[in-house]
Model the fold of this input.
Amino acid sequence: MGLARPSAVVFDMDGLLLDSERLARSTFIRACRAFGWEPDMSVYNLCIGTTFETTERILKDNFGGEFPYDEVAELWETQYHDHALNRPIDLKPGARELLVRLQTLGIPRALVTSTVRSTAIAKLSHADLEGYFAHMICGGETARGKPHPDPYRQATEQLALRPETCWALEDSDNGVRAAHAAGFEVFQIPDLLQPGSEVREFGHHILDDLTAVLALLN
Done:
């Protein structure tokens, strides 16, 4: 690709570093079915990579007033956090190796996640990744979350770097929208969903896994 090494690399977390999106999806389905609701997963897919507040709005707007949102959300959160807060979530291929390589090269790392800080710290701690990030911007800490650029703009302010010199690594289309709008060099490593046609028009880099990012650095 002929890319210069980045001034910094900003990571998403769920679905990019941690194989947690499958856990979120399976617990959502189980919670819905516990209350007699068979979810339309095309609606759920719109929620991937967004904040808790945006997820609530999407589900309520699309499923309508008959959807038992409060009950489903409470059970979903309980089942998901029972795993996420108490035991490690598997790492995505190449995640640790990439972080170690960036650390060796002295390239700063930041985390931009829609997950609230306490949960993000717990997940990183269980995965033994908490020491790799100089800065973290978490869910609810900016005026707007992904897919808006606010979290990435805050990351550049904390890093004191120009966004065009930094790489952003995302799995979801919503994350890509945020990083692209903030002016980053964007790399997408799809997880549950392949990039949509609208996002592909950005002309960003779409890779198979994080080992491909590692190869670019080497």
Notes: The mean pLDDT is 95. The CA atoms of residues 75 and 208 lie 33 Å apart. The chain has two domains: 8-19+89-217, 21-84. Residues 21-84 form one domain.
